[in-house]
Each structure stands twice: as C-alpha cells, then as structure tokens.
Design a protein that fits this description.
heterodimer; A: about 325 residues; two-stranded antiparallel ribbon; globular; B: about 300 residues; mainly alpha; two-stranded antiparallel sheet; 13 helices
Chain lengths: ~325, ~300
C-alpha cells in the first residue's frame, strides 16, 4: 500500500485543482500537460523500458485523432466514440508494423517509425474525399467549459499510469528491460524478443491513440499537418520523456509540464516566438549531451553537482 | 500502343536521371552510417542548407548553380566536421539508457537547421531561374523516323552526368588514396583499424564532412531543376534512408543501385498513380525491402559473387 501512497496523493491533488476556480488558460495548460503526460508515458514504455526508440508516435496519435474525426464526419457518431474505434485500429497497425520491423535489429525500427508518421500524413493529405485533405476536420465541442475535459483526460492519464505501472512491475516489464540492456542475453534466456517488443509497441501505440482521440474532442479541429507532425508531435513526445526522465515513473509527467509551459512561454515571446521549434531543437541537443537520462533520471548526478557548488561557494 | 510505350520510356528516362541524383544523396548517408554506425537524420537538412548557399550565390552574384559545386560542398565539408566534433563526439561519450541517443541528436540538429532557415529565408518556395532551364534534347532530332519521341532536359542531363563524375571521383578517393583506405578500414572494423595505426577519431570527422559535402553536391545539382523551401530537408532525409536500407546498410554500390531503383519507382508512381503519391511509393519500397530483402541490394550482390 505504501507504494501507492504517492500516486494517490498526486491524484487527489490533481482532482481537487479545478475546485480552486482556476481561470480557463491555466486549465488549458493543465489539460495539455496531462495529455502529453499520457503520450509520454506511452512512449516511455516502449522507448525507455524496452529500448525501442520511436520517431513516429505521431502516427498513432494522428490515427487516434482521425478515428474520432472520421466517425463523426462519415457516420455522424459522437467523436467520443473515437476512443473505442481507435483502440483496435491502432493496435492492428502497431501489430502489423511490429511483426515486420521488430524482427530486425539496429536502426530499422527507428527508420520505420519515422517513415510511418510521414506516410500517414501524406495519405491523409491526398485522400481528400475521405479525410478532407489539408482542410482538416472540424467538430463541435461538447462543452465550452474546461472542467469536464480536465476530468476526462485525468481519468485517461490515470488509466495510462496504472497500465504502465502494472506492466513495468510485471514479468513483461522485466523482459522489456532485459531486451533493452542486451538483446542477445535476453534471447538466450528464452525471451521471445520480437514478441515482447511487439507487445510494448502495441500497448504504447494504443495509449498514444487515446491521447490523439482526446485531442480531437478537446481541440475541435484536426488536420494532417498537425496531428501527424514530426516536429510538433513525435519529437515533442520524445522531448517530454527525455527532459523528464527516461525509464522513470514520474519523468513523463514532469517533462510534460515543463515542455507545455516552455512551449507556451516561448511562443508568447516577440520575435523568437515563431521560432519555438528552434528552441526545442537546441534544448533537445543540450539535454542529450548534459542530461541524457532526464531530470528525474539524472537527479542524483544533478544534486551532487549542485551540492558541490554550494559547498565551494 | 506507341503512345503508351512513349510514356513508359519517358518515365523510365526521368526515373534514371532522378535516380542518379538520389544515389549521390544515398552514398553520403551510407558512408556516415558505415563509419559512424549512426543514422544521420539531418542529411536532407544539410542538403537544404547547401541549396540555400547555391540559391543566394545565384541570386546575389549571378553565380551558376553548377559553379557553386566548387563553393558549397567545401563549406558543407567544414560544417559537417564541426557538427561531428562539437556535437556528435560529446554524445558518443555520454552514458545513457537510450541506445539511439546520437540519432535523436541528429534529429535535433535537423530541427534547428530547418527552423533557422525558416526564420532567415521565410517558408517561400524559391528556385534559380537559369536561362537553360527549359532547354531540351529530342530523340527525333537525332533519328528522324523514330516511332517514339523522348525528350531529355538539358539541366537534368547535366546534373545526372555530374553526379556520375562525382561518384567516380569518390570511388577513386576511397579505393586509391590513403585517407580513403583508412575510412574504409574504419568502417570495416574500428578496433582493427585502430591497431593498424589509423586515426579513427580523425576518420570519423572526415567522414561526416565528406558525407555532408556529397549531399551538398547533390543540392547544387538539384537546385537548377527543383524548387527550394526550408521544410524540404525532411523529405530528402526520408529518401536518403530509404535508399540506404534498399542498398544495404553501409554499402556504396548498394546506395547507387538503391538510388536508381527508387528514382525509377518514384517516377513510375508519379506517372501511373498520381503526383502526390510518390512518397507513399517510397514507403512501399521501404517495407518491401525490409520484408523481402533486409540486407538490401548489397546482400543480393554478395550472394551472386558480384561484389567482393
């Protein structure tokens, strides 16, 4: 029970936040942070624990977003059904992709993920009859208030947290780490590496798809250039995890908070505002060189450095 | 019947010309991959930078893009060496959980390059209006009674020939000079090369520079026949790695063949399916290569004893 104490306290605090009567901008930041936390946790399961770096989580995010948009556009269903529609769809694509690419080692997976995001974007832009192409899909938002959205994304993130935590502490989680550390050793211990890598990919993709479906419902508008974007989605998810902490439980949450606030802040600056992706790039380079395991992961190193500086001063 | 043959042949010619240029992009990527064991996901962005150099030289000083071949590649050589020394080397020393740190680093560099280009030059589409842009040769000029008419655009043909010349020069460099041999030794076995007295660190720096210079050459050859905008890089990065996979990781000959195959395939997709679908054709080739030929064309050559 002790292990569950921290998450429960955090959950209680987060659930209580809207009662403070925060203004809608703060709520917007919170909702986005929690949404990116969900996507970050999903990426972390695959990238951080299993060691399979994906540059194409925008593919799954976009598929989730478009399942919600398309059922509304063609079937007239409420876009909230997108959550249910996206799960089997995304899982199917992830399984197909895993069975092709995860048999191979080395850079193939990195390249394939990068390609699939781009290809889905181009397909969506070209299938103008089906997806409305670059015009995008507009839906009417269910509520004007943010509070309902806040609780929905909080619930989804809780689901993601529980799933990730259960997997990481189960036999699967140990298999994932074994694969990350040494695939040959894992294989010789009798772990079917392809199978477990595919499981990690599928679970990760499904959670990311949920975040995408939420995005459609919350934002009310999607277009291929945004939801399948390499810079705005795929890289952002990686940065959320890398800034916060690779293969840590709380890293994605911390990273998402930092990244969302940072993005909003940089965008509000005059002149440099348009160039916020440049800042992301620079930040990514700095993080990789100086804090490769993120704030949570490198916290002991960071604290030692700070303490030493404090002692000499 | 003849009309169909004409369309097919014209598409084939266009594909081969495009493939020759693709090969040049692919060779740069495969060299870096072979020596460094990392995928350089900023390859296309480096090409974009070289294209802007050629574009501004043309716009400001009226320097022909083909003359820029003597200016842009040396600059990009220095730039590539700088990236390797200042950014990639420190990351190679870092201890981290993620195995693909260097790849993420190159994505970060690409992001910076692309956005800096957007800030400096806006995202407008640009091109160099050279006066020979629409000059073309026709088969009927050579052979009056030809049943099929094929045209050959002058800048495309020149770019293709120059890319062949550059490839031959590169082959000579790799096969017959000490530095070239050292690079190949480093790619084959880093530790053995180190024992033999090869300065592996220096070879890595040179290779990154060389790869950048090669893709800069491709940029100079592309600018007279293509348009230019800051986001163009990511598209060519994708092309470069599809060629690299198709050719076989680290194989130069494979990259040439991979480039040609991709060029022809894309040209065919554009003609018979639709212009916008060429990138999807690229992905189909990529998946097909992964499923049926994971070692690329190079593995095929090896089993047929064509390559040593």
């Amino acid at each position: 029970m002790k292990n569950n104490l921290v998450p429960l306290v955090v959950l209680a605090a987060l659930a209580g936040l809207p009662l403070l009567g925060l203004n809608s901008y703060v709520m917007h930041i919170l909702i986005l942070s929690i949404m990116w936390t969900l996507a970050g946790m999903a990426w972390n399961l695959l990238g951080g624990y299993c060691g399979q770096v994906s540059f194409g989580h925008a593919a799954f995010f976009g598929m989730g977003a478009y399942s919600a948009g398309l059922i509304h556009l063609h079937l007239g269903l409420s876009p909230w059904w997108g959550f249910l529609v996206s799960l089997p769809l995304v899982a199917l694509v992830a399984l197909a992709m895993g069975s092709v690419v995860l048999r191979l080692r080395g850079p193939y997976f990195v390249l394939a993920t990068l390609a699939i995001g781009e290809v889905l974007r181009i397909t969506c832009e070209n299938l103008t009859d089906f997806t409305k192409g670059t015009l995008g899909i507009m839906i009417t938002r269910t509520w004007v208030e943010k509070t309902q959205y806040y609780y929905i994304i909080l619930g989804l993130a809780l689901l993601g947290f529980v799933v990730c935590r259960a997997i990481v502490h189960s036999r699967w989680g140990y298999y994932f780490v074994a694969i990350r550390e040494d695939q040959d050793a894992a294989e010789s211990m009798g772990i079917d590496t392809t199978r477990y890598k595919t499981i990690a990919l599928t679970v990760s993709a499904m959670l990311t798809g949920l975040a995408g479906a939420f995005y459609t419902n919350y934002m009310g508008y999607i277009d291929p250039g945004v939801v399948f974007s390499l810079g705005e989605i795929s890289i952002l998810i990686i940065m959320v995890v890398m800034v916060g902490g690779v293969a840590t439980e709380w890293g994605p949450a911390l990273g998402a908070g930092i990244m969302v606030i940072l993005a909003e802040y940089i965008r509000s600056l005059p002149l440099i505002g348009v160039a916020y992706q440049t800042m992301f790039g620079v930040l990514l380079i700095v993080i990789i060189i100086y804090l490769p395991n993120g704030l949570v992961g490198d916290w002991p190193v960071l604290r030692r450095k700070l303490l030493r500086r404090g002692a000499t001063a | 019947m003849w009309v169909q043959a004409e369309v097919f042949l014209q598409t084939l010619v266009a594909g081969i010309l495009l493939g020759g240029l693709y090969a040049l992009i692919g060779i740069g990527m495969t060299l870096i991959l072979g020596v460094m064991k990392i995928i350089n996901l900023t390859h296309g962005q480096l090409m974009m930078v070289a294209m802007y150099i050629a574009f501004w030289l043309f716009t400001l000083f009226g320097i022909d893009p083909y003359v820029s071949l003597f200016i842009a590649p040396p600059l990009m050589f220095a730039f590539g060496m700088l990236i390797q020394k200042a950014l990639v080397n420190p990351v190679l020393r870092v201890e981290s959980i993620l195995p693909h740190n260097q790849v993420i680093l190159t994505v970060g560099i690409g992001l910076v390059l692309q956005n800096v280009a957007t800030i400096l030059f806006t995202s407008d589409y640009r091109s160099t209006p050279v006066d020979y842009a629409s000059t073309a040769f026709y088969l009927s000029d050579l052979w009056a009674g030809t049943p099929v008419e094929i045209s050959l655009s002058l800048p495309w043909a020149v770019s293709f020939l120059l890319s062949v010349v550059i490839t031959v020069l590169l082959w000579f460099f790799l096969a017959h000079t000490d530095t070239g041999k050292s690079i190949r030794a480093t790619a084959q076995d880093k530790d053995a090369a180190l024992i033999m007295g090869v300065n592996v660190g220096l070879m890595r720096v040179i290779t990154f520079g060389l790869g950048s210079a090669l893709v800069a050459c491709a940029g100079c050859l592309f600018i007279p026949i293509y348009y230019l905008f800051p986001a163009l890089g990511s598209q060519f990065t994708l092309i470069a790695f599809v060629i690299t996979i198709l050719g076989g990781l680290g194989s130069t000959l494979g990259a040439i063949l991979g480039g040609l195959i991709l060029g022809v395939f894309e040209s065919m997709t554009a003609t018979y399916v639709g212009m916008g679908w060429a990138p999807v054709g690229r992905f189909v080739i990529f998946v097909a290569a992964l499923v049926f030929l994971p070692g690329g064309v190079a593995s095929l050559l090896k089993t047929r004893k064509l390559s040593k």
